[in-house]
Amino acid sequence: QVQLVESGGGLVQPGGSLRLSCAASGFTFSNEAMRWWRQAPGNEREFVATITNTRNITNYADSVKGRFTISRDNSKKTVYLQMNSLKTEDTAVYYCNVNLWTGTGPNDYWGQGTQVTVSS
What we know:
Distance between the termini: 40 Å
Helix content: under 10%
Oligomer: single chain
Largest sheet: 7 strands, mixed
Shape: globular
Number of strands: 11
Structural class: mainly beta
Number of helices: 0
Strand content: over 45%
Radius of gyration: 14 Å
């Protein structure tokens, strides 16, 4: 079955950096676009970044553009999120996501999330 396992979260001071990883299994990773989302307490889940399966085209939320970088390693079936110049407002649970077409239509799959806390 589809599994997405995030890691790399933690506590970091404002201005610091973290690198999140998401290890995927249960589908052909190289065929799929991958996304990162985040959810802060009391807020809805919001889009952070996406990377296509071919040509590695990326797109970012305006709030993270220029600070975060999404990348992928198809040989390791892993997608990454490099987060630099972190701000307190980046504090959230970060989720990896893939949308797959199944026999009944498109379905979103999510990891369990990894907590990122930016605080002094």
